Amino acid sequence: MNTKLLTTALVLGLGASAFAAESATLKHRYSFEPVYDDMGNFILTDSVGGATGTLYGDNSYLGEIYDPETFEIIGYEMVLSGEGDPASFDVGSFASLPADIMSTFSSFSVEMWVKCTGDKGNWMRLFDFGNCYTNDDGTINSGHNYTMMTWRSYSGTLRNGVRVEGDEQVVDATVLPIGDDVFHHIVYTYDSETKIGKIYTDGAIAGSGSQAYNPTQFGGMPNMWLGKAEFQDPYFQGNYNEFRIYQGVLTAAEVSNNYKLGADKLGDLGTLQSLEITAPKNTIYKNEHLVLTVNATFSTAGVINVTGDCTFDNSDPEVASITDGAILGLAAGTAKFTANYQDQSATFEVTVLDEAPTLELVHRYSFNGNANDSVGTANGTLENGATVSGGKLVLTPADEAAANAQYVSLPLEGFFDGQLAATVEVWAQIDNVNQDYNWCRLWQFSSSISSFYLTPRGSTVINSYLKTPYGESTIVGSGYIAGMDEGVMAHLVVVADGYNKKFSIYRDGNLLVESSINLVPADLGALTLAR
């Protein structure tokens, strides 16, 4: 398969907004210090609200965390084995908190320090609070009304889902590693006034979205589970260092400060002293995003990123817009943005240029004996026995297992950074176009929250897909096996033009399909897969 990649250039993006919410009040705190009941069983002590929890499972326990050098106790943890019957209410490794301890909270925050030590599959729950349907024999059937967080959804994301009467609304974030032996700081907040849920990981915002429901609408929360689902999903295998439930919404500044302090401390920001805006540049193009960072300096906490807690004033909404600190260029001109936080403000001026991107060949793979980039420096690597022969990349999968697929891996940096428009061009031949090849990729660039690929057969016809944190778009060809004929070299070109807002596929020099698009390749962000 003779493959050539072509890309054009221009710019990057991000977006969201700010709000005033109910202040967060810590209601329940579990630090997992080993404590036993009269029968010698572990219990979960709530040092704030007195809502003692129960630990289930023969291989579940509370233990000490030791400094590896001094061997001093530096904290405590709850250890869950990931074992058990997911249909049972009490046979498994999980923790149960008292019923309804947050059923009156319309706005709330859940904060934890946790690590995943083993992969039991998709849908392992960090928490699942609500109620479920049961079978005639009293076992768990499926979730009814709840709020939950899973380490990894079927989409490969860290996810919060809230469901009421069959309608589930989700917020996704980049998945965290399994087995890295690091306690990750994970926070979920929900504001009932704005109906926005947010996920933070390790002190920074990782995902947000609209969610209409809150615990007051669940009709009771008898199941307050850590490590167990309201469905027959896998138990969580991992360790909890700290778990907190708040009434109200933690601010971005509070989340960042708590992450800096660590699991064993409760912090105070102190007095706000100053506010500053920073950005990588002050000139952007039309349709380009520019992310601002607003840092506040506090007397106690020091410098904290408060972008997510700010409101913004805009001097010229026709030139540029702003969402959660991300500016989007709309038309040529200059606009001044003012960030407001508590009693402080800071300003930033941006100039927007209206210039179309120019076409430039930046990467080319001709497979002349290797997978090197003859134009740029993004050399590829032949994987799983992939070979080069006669100026072609030859892929012959050993079996259907994805882990054994042959491909060329490409560097993860530099393909779409700063690009308003991108073109990917390939000459390829496929030797079998039957359904065994559904959704096979000619190329793909992706992360857990973004993706850009071309498949010659998505179910039946060619399609290309672009997804960023700001939306997704698919273009689909027409006719049976519209992409490629068996055993015939095809010339396929995908153009994702965020400047002119067009998404196109060309085949053998002719336009096959085109649709409108409101996305730019630059918004793909950091990649975890390029091949």
Write the layout of secondary structure elements.
Blueprint: E1 25-30, E2 35-36, E3 42-44, E4 53-56, E5 61-66, E6 73-81, E7 94-97, E8 108-116, E9 125-134, E10 140-150, E11 157-164, E12 167-174, E13 184-191, E14 196-201, E15 204-210, E16 223-226, E17 237-247, H1 252-261, E18 272-278, E19 283-285, E20 289-291, E21 293-298, E22 302-305, E23 311-314, E24 320-323, E25 326-329, E26 333-341, E27 344-353, E28 381-383, E29 387-389, E30 392-394, E31 407-409, E32 421-428, E33 443-446, E34 451-458, E35 461-468, E36 471-476, E37 490-497, E38 502-507, E39 510-516, E40 529-530
Parallel strand pairs: 19-27
Antiparallel strand pairs: 1-17, 2-3, 3-4, 4-7, 5-6, 6-17, 7-16, 8-13, 8-17, 9-10, 9-16, 10-11, 11-12, 13-14, 14-15, 18-21, 20-25, 21-22, 23-26, 24-25, 26-27, 28-31, 29-30, 32-37, 33-34, 33-40, 34-35, 35-36, 37-38, 38-39
Description:
- This protein has 3 domains: 25-250, Jelly Rolls (Sandwich); 272-353, Immunoglobulin-like; 415-530, Sandwich (Jelly Rolls).
- The protein contains 1 helix and 40 strands.
- A 9-stranded antiparallel beta sheet has the order 2-3-4-7-16-9-10-11-12, with no helix packed on it.
Summarize the structure in short.
With 531 residues, the protein is mainly β. The protein contains one helix and 40 strands.
What are the salient characteristics of this protein?
3 domains, 8-stranded antiparallel sheet, 9-stranded antiparallel sheet, 531 residues, Jelly Rolls, mainly beta, 2% helix, globular, Immunoglobulin-like
